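FW: tagging you since you asked about this chain on Friday. Here's the raw sequence from the shared folder, copied in full. Didn't touch anything.
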Amino acid sequence: MFDFSFSELIIGEALLIILGYFIVFFIVATIIKNNSIVDIGWGLGFVLVAWALFFIGDTSVLTIEKIIVNIMVSFWGLRLFYHILKRNAYQEEDFRYKKWREEWGKWVVLRAFFQIFMLQGAFMYLVGIGVFYINMVEVTRNTYLILLILGVIIWLIGYLFEVIGDRQLKQHIANKNKTQKLMTHGLWKYTRHPNYFGEALLWWGIFIFVLGTNSPFALIVSPLIITLLLRFVSGVPMLEKKMSKNDGWDEYADKTNAFIPWFPKD
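HL: got it, structure written out here
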């Protein structure tokens, strides 16, 4: 039913656009001495690359599917771009990047180029590979309607988790009368990271949608990479290291799932 081959997954156009995109961010970050601006460019980058490839590729084939998947990526990417831009604009460098700046010393510029900007570019390519691939498809493929519909539904659930989770957290932070610093209600009652879970889930939805165009199953690398990053590398672990300093953390962590939503333990 599906091709497992990786041979079709080298998309040179996407690599070149991503390279140029992150070089621009690197130059700006070096001038203003704030490498955390790379986070602002994460969501927006997917949108720019997807639509650029849409117009570079064969727009006469799978046009509807391409438009739908690009719309899904645009809703996610532009919202995330605005969310992080509004939160981080005119702020000092994020604590993670500030720590690396101190550790890297005189090598900060060189290491930042490879370990922050080029590394994030590589992850953007891997996470967005399904979207980039479908935009460059030049042959007619039979589609599987059930997978297209299922992909959109899963994407929508993930998107709502991310949007609602972020909104609830923002309201909690802005509440001057809150009795505790930790956010433990709303979606946060069922998972300690509803926004991260939502982001991973929506990428699984995009993968299933792309798979519905009879694209290579090897594109599963996209949701696998983002899920592993959020759950075990740059998402949950780094944030929980900071959250664990708050009162009530141990109790909250004991009864609430870290990632996949479920009812709290008694």
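FW: The mean pLDDT is 90.
HL: agreed, and The radius of gyration is 20 Å.
FW: great, closing this out.
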